[in-house]
């Protein structure tokens, strides 16, 4: 059954609802799977892409992640700052972040992050970083934590409530997730595509750095 704004509001009002689906299969896709996925990665998504890095960067990394995923939070904390400093800010990597909600709370986080950012990628990545760092609070008290984060960005309670009632954005998030599942065969978070090659699960900076450098040499 599709998630509607009524279902979203009702779910968020229930204390302690988590409903995470930990489908995290660690590994790398086969060559055929990676080729198929690569052909579809550039297709337009329903929502504007949230991107950091030069448009002409030789390496393109796409991350599918969820705000309540602890593996994604660890990547954001331990790996992403080094990746940004050494490869994104230096024009070697273009980085794309796409939402892949694992539960109703991830949907709410994605909607609020999109509202705060208002299609500004810099703002979006800043908000996502805050959400990952406050993940425990988001899981325990989703609505209160989202409102607190929104207040810091200058949005009031009513703006958050209006955001969570935005059926159009909700439909787009669901459409993009359906595309990720049906076409790209994504099953969990985090999932990365490095120049089209799928990497499923957590990856350390050293391994990611090796992959990037090998592509920079070609």
From TrEMBL:
- Boundaries of every Thioredoxin domain copy: 23-217
State the protein's name.
DsbA family protein
| Role of this protein | May be required for disulfide bond formation in some proteins.
From which residue to which does the signal peptide run?
Answer: 1-34
Q: Which family does it belong to?
A: Belongs to the thioredoxin family. DsbA subfamily.
Q: Which domain of life is it from?
A: Bacteria
**Which is an annotated Pfam family here?**
Thioredoxin_4
């Amino acid at each position: 059954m599709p998630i509607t704004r009524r279902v979203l509001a009702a779910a968020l009002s229930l204390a302690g609802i988590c409903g995470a689906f930990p489908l995290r299969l660690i590994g790398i896709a086969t060559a055929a799977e990676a080729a198929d996925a690569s052909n579809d990665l550039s297709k337009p998504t329903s929502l504007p892409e949230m991107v950091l890095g030069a448009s002409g960067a030789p390496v393109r990394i796409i991350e599918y992640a969820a705000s309540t995923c602890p593996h994604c939070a660890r990547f954001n904390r331990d790996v992403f700052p080094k990746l940004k400093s050494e490869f994104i800010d230096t024009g070697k990597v273009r980085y794309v972040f796409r939402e892949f909600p694992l539960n109703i709370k991830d949907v709410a986080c994605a909607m609020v992050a999109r509202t705060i950012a208002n299609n500004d990628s810099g703002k979006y990545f800043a908000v996502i970083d805050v959400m990952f760092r406050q993940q425990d609070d988001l899981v325990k008290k989703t609505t209160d934590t989202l409102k607190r984060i929104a207040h810091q960005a200058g949005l009031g309670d009513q703006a958050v409530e209006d955001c969570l009632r935005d059926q159009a954005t909700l439909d787009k998030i669901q459409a993009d997730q359906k595309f990720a599942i049906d076409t790209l065969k994504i099953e969990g978070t985090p999932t990365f595509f490095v120049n089209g090659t799928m990497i499923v699960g957590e990856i350390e900076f050293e391994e990611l750095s090796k992959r990037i450098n090998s592509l920079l040499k070609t």
